[in-house]
């Protein structure tokens, strides 16, 4: 057939009429390529024919033999139709039984050569195959459904696995020996990847010596090549976009010398951890590049991201540039402002805070300072950059705890003609494979360690029936001067009930359980300033127990809180629970995280809570979360840039994505995107991966 066979509609395959083509189309199979890129989801080894005499009950087996006799009978009771055939080979004979498949009487006739595959059973009348797969042995078609390692396809609509198998075979037979390949030859050689044609063939019809376990784990060279191809094409699109959006150099050049190094060292109140040092090195190296930085700094709660960002800020300020430091809420902004102002109090840099509650008059003064450049570092909420703020010389934007927002923000900045370095920070560890998809255009730095001297958090998984013990634990902690959080889930669709239970709980705790202490309620329906008031009172120690339906503001830092109780923990996601746990363990005291669950709980819930009790490491937990939930659910209902994939699996094939990412960047950065690959990125990339524009 022609070169363009891959894009040929399936209707042009022999034996596919309009009716069947419509069925296939409904199953999403339009072209030959669609067919070839829907890989079998499992394989079965039917290649080794066993002598009939060697068959044992309880095993799956394939035999090749001749039909010796057949009989169709109808049971008296219930009218079952039973078709029996006796198959014989040189070593012996065995009975095959099919229930309610009377039509077989026309197909399986005496003297016919046949391959049988199925479970060998034993009953009072001896060994037999029950409802086995069969295939007639003829000259023109051997070993499609039996007698080989057989591919199984997910049933799609009216397209049965056997039908797909036949069509795939036919398509492959018509494919020319050489087909165009979007994978560049040098990558193929370096990574020892099979040619496309061979990989297409072997993923569907593996050679008989292929290891079935390896096939079912999707680890054979042919499968890996197909998956790599898909991931590579996906990553090439991202790499290209990243390259295209950062091609123009920044309007300023930064440098780092000993004077700047010692200026930064002077503000350091402690020694950086190795992880912090590595992250800082990556960030500063990026800032010295002529193109703007676009980097995500990941570190578990309490890993110490702020100081790393601040040191980067000093590099920018020492180079005469301004820094904007943005947080998602006013509380977090004031928290950052307090810390930063304290650390920079001995420096010559001026730090200001600008939020929604800054009085208008003061706001105007601040705008003027920002515009003139007398403010070196401005801390604020995310509105900071959106509003009409004009900067004198904006060099670095730090965005805390809202990376998705940050990606959009950067586009907004570019729209204003600003091209600062951008550093996004998140305490929600993103599994590597998702970072490579959703955030593929970012560079990622990671702080894998925690500063020394942290007191460990003890995690308790407890049934509802042990509530009294938990109250005792809380009471002991409050008596010792600590504070506690109690979190309620807020499930969509049942907000009212949940809100009611949280409100009642807060009243009950106040009136009956902890009358000597102050209990307050925080929920998502409250106005932002009311929320901020409650949070401030809690931070100031005026409230002892905070009952909350919302996930307590990410990043909130109340060192005196030492107990986190999560009600209905079975309803929360793993990463969410880890975030909640991160609200305690911030002071010098031992802290407790209690996960209260209500039975019956699902196996999934049990796994989640166990994973949490087993590890305190956010990265470990994020990977586990991804395995348990799958990539689609990992981000919850949030819009995400996950690609539609045909062959690869983001969880199973993480390592392939890693290779694809590296190779795609390499080829784009070497200026190697041209010809068909470039055309693919420009014309087909978005559609193939089902991507919607973000930001
Ligand atoms: P996060 O990464 O969650 O934003 P922070 O930057 O708020 O964490 O840091 C948490 C706490 O750890 C802060 O009180 C900070 O001063 C402290 N800290 C950060 N780095 C170190 C370090 N290397 N040694 C000791 N304490 C540190
Ligand atoms: Mg933080």
Structure write-up:
This protein is an alpha/beta fold. Among the domains are: 48-147, Beta Barrel (OB fold (Dihydrolipoamide Acetyltransferase, E2P)), CATH 2.40.50; 258-447, Rossmann fold; 458-615, P-loop containing nucleotide triphosphate hydrolases (Rossmann fold, 3-Layer(aba) Sandwich), CATH 3.40.50.300. It is built from 26 helices and 21 strands. The strands form four sheets. A seven-stranded parallel sheet has the order 11-12-10-13-14-9-15, with helices on both faces. A six-stranded parallel sheet has the order 16-21-20-17-19-18, sandwiched between helices. β20, α20 (574-581) and β21 form a beta-alpha-beta unit. It is globular, with a radius of gyration of 32 Å. The two termini are 44 Å apart. Magnesium ion binds at residues 305-306, 400, 427, 555.
What is the arithmetic mean of pLDDT?
87
- Main pleated sheet: 7 strands, parallel
Shape: globular
User: What is the strand arrangement across the widest sheet?
Assistant: 11-12-10-13-14-9-15
What would you say the CATH architecture of the domain at 258-447 is? Answer: 3-Layer(aba) Sandwich
The CATH superfamily of the domain at 258-447 appears as: P-loop containing nucleotide triphosphate hydrolases
